[in-house]
# Entry
Amino acid sequence: MYALNKFKFYLTMIVLIIGGACLMVYGIKTSSSMSKDPIDLNDPDVDWSDIEVGDHVEMDLPILLDCFARYEKDGKDTQRYYCIPRYEEDQLSITNFIGLEVKDQSLFGTYDSLVSDSWDWWQSADTSLPSGSSVHIDGVVRELPSEQLKFFEEYLRDDLELSDDLVDDSQYKLYITPETSKGSTGLTILGAVLLVAGLGITGFSLTRRRG
# Structure
């Protein structure tokens, strides 16, 4: 029993240390990205093909397409991924796509309304982007996990029936996660606290046993 409790204790400390280190690294990287001047994705001169993981980006979303992946808990969505299209008015066509992660459940209704308005606009005769219903996002570009990437690709190829060339040339392998400098700093501090606590408790335990 003693050996089992000892194993559980050190396993917990290892998880605490690794988890704290990961949170701290994530927070530092996010803070570094958010400290850079944002790339305005509404700027027609910005080539979405040049977007890279770690870029700080912002834009007003005039249109938004469907949620292609979600996480649920107790029958309720806790996290969603939407499709951001790039519509170029001079070409009257959608030329690129990137994902959008939404963790704030209070905003699901806002994004769903924008999706509905976007489809109404797309099916209308209006060739100019709608105004007045946009949502501002400010965040960091990250690489989609394999599961979400599979869902996004299926949505673009099967549901929207887009050509392989359009999908392959788009940024569908990436997504934007909204961030704030305050939030990333908080993650860094939390990670540091967990890391120090794990190391401190482990060190104290080892010292006491040797004594």
